[in-house]
Amino acid sequence: MKHLKKLLFLIIILFPSLGKADEAPIQMHNFLFNTGLIAKAKIVSYTDHYYNLKILDVYRDDQTGAKVGDTIKIMNELNVIKSVQCVRRRTIEDGLTGVAFLGKSEERWGIGKFPLFLKERVTIRFGYEYCRISGNSAEIKTQIQEYFREFKMTNGKLIGQKTAKEVLKSNLGQLVLTQYSRLYMGHNKWKTYNKIRKKIHCGSEEYLLQD
Predict the structure, then answer these.
(1) Which of these, 90, 93, 114, 132, lies nearest to 211 by C-alpha position?
(2) Pairing between strand 157-160 and 117-118?
(3) Which strands sit side by side in the sheet containing 97-104, from one edge to the other?
(4) CA-atom Rg of the chain in angstroms
(5) 154 to each of 33, 159, 172, how far by Cα in Å?
(6) What span, in angstroms and rounded, lies between the C-alpha atoms of 82 and 87?
(7) What pTM does this model have?
(8) Per-residue tens of pLDDT for the chain, all 211 residues
(9) Which of these, 43, 205, 25, lies nearest to 133 by C-alpha position?
(10) Do residues 40 and 26 make contact, with C-beta atoms less than 8 angstroms apart?
(11) What's the rounded Cα separation, in Å, for the pair 111 and 105?
């Protein structure tokens, strides 16, 4: 199962067609649960063939062993405007800071998303759900950690910890509420879905790849 997760993440990040607006974006839970490391990171150096990310804060680690202060090398060709890893050349050259969604195989690291901080705030978009979450580093970290406390994957199926009544009475963050709304929509419980959607204020937009 662990090797399968690595393979799925690398498939996600190595095929650029998955990131184009005319292709179906991956569902949020599949992307998040196949991501080994979510961290605030800064690009600290680069060559024509790779760039280095310094980990500033770990939001979630799924047994990669990465720590604050570690440097992670991402293979990259800078002779293209935008790499298959979804990080723009200008982002690399300017040494910008963002939220890195990373996966690790036996041979190398890969990056699936790298939304950037602007004036200490970052916006993370989820195309399949037509939604985005925004906040400073602490707020985003809280939402991501809450997400992985609230949900688990069992035999490839997403499971939520709360009943519909508990969700509606809760003060859950926007990321978790968005996932619950999709979960109940998938179960064809449209009344519950609509009630949860009324609690969501994360914004609805067309799928944009700004990372």
Answers:
(1) 114
(2) unpaired
(3) 71-75, 50-61, 37-46, 97-104, 109-113
(4) 17
(5) 11, 7, 22
(6) 6
(7) 0.83
(8) 555 555 555 545 444 333 344 445 789 999 999 999 999 999 999 998 999 999 999 999 998 999 999 999 998 876 665 555 678 989 999 999 999 999 988 778 999 999 999 999 999 999 888 889 999 999 999 999 999 999 999 998 999 999 999 999 999 999 999 999 999 887 778 888 888 988 887 655 443 333 3
(9) 205
(10) no
(11) 11
Phi first, then psi, for residue 34 (nearest 5°) are: -100, 10
Pair 18, 86: CB distance under 8 Å:
no
Q: What is the C-alpha separation between 51 and 124, in angstroms, rounded?
A: 22
151 membership: H or E segment, kind and range = strand 151-154
Residue 139 is encoded by which pair of tokens?
Answer: 């707020």
Dist CA 75 CA 102 (whole Å): 13
Match 């993440």 to its residue by tokens. Answer: 9
Which helix H or strand E contains 186, and what residues bound it? helix 174-186
